[in-house]
Design brief:
This protein has about 150 residues and is an alpha+beta fold. It contains six helices and five strands. Helix 4 packs antiparallel against helix 5.
Length: about 150
């Protein structure tokens, strides 16, 4: 129980940032064909400000459950910070565009929020940090070009 609480986020029960980062590092060091998906809940601060932190927490838990469900078969899901959640996809048979779109769509249909999602594929020579940063940049592009969409890092 103590170990579990040291590697998971208390609110969402997703893996925490440190554990997630370490797992990405392990895969990258072995040059495995992985993807990192980076998501951010759209207009989350406004939700907290208008409907309260309890509602914000509930939404975080709902989105986390969707991430966990979707990642279960093909990788691991984590909470990166605030309203940012990440998935390490280690199954090379996953069609990333379809996978990311399914997560985006479920968040839109099953919760009261939407999410901007970016993803990136590991290429030789990339560090774990760079791979995560690329997925983050793709997510930022999704945010700044209209939100509630999936963008692949290019």
């Amino acid at each position: 129980a103590i170990y579990n609480s040291s590697i998971t986020d208390g609110l969402t029960r997703l893996y925490n940032r440190k554990f997630f980062y370490n797992r990405v590092t392990q895969h990258v060091q072995r040059h495995l064909p992985v993807y990192v998906l980076f998501s951010d809940i759209d207009n989350f601060k406004k939700l907290n400000d208008t409907q309260g932190h309890q509602m914000g927490d509930n939404v975080l838990k709902q989105v986390a459950q969707i991430m966990r469900d979707e990642a279960e078969e093909c990788g691991i899901a984590g909470r990166y910070g605030g309203e940012e959640m990440v998935v390490l996809v280690s199954d090379p048979s996953v069609k990333m565009e379809t996978f990311a779109e399914r997560i985006r769509s479920r968040i839109e249909k099953e919760t009261i929020v939407t999410a901007s999602i970016g993803y990136s594929k590991y290429k030789n020579g990339l560090s774990a940090e760079e791979l995560i940063k690329q997925a983050d940049e793709a997510m930022y592009r999704a945010k700044t070009t209209g939100k509630n969409k999936v963008v692949k890092f290019s």
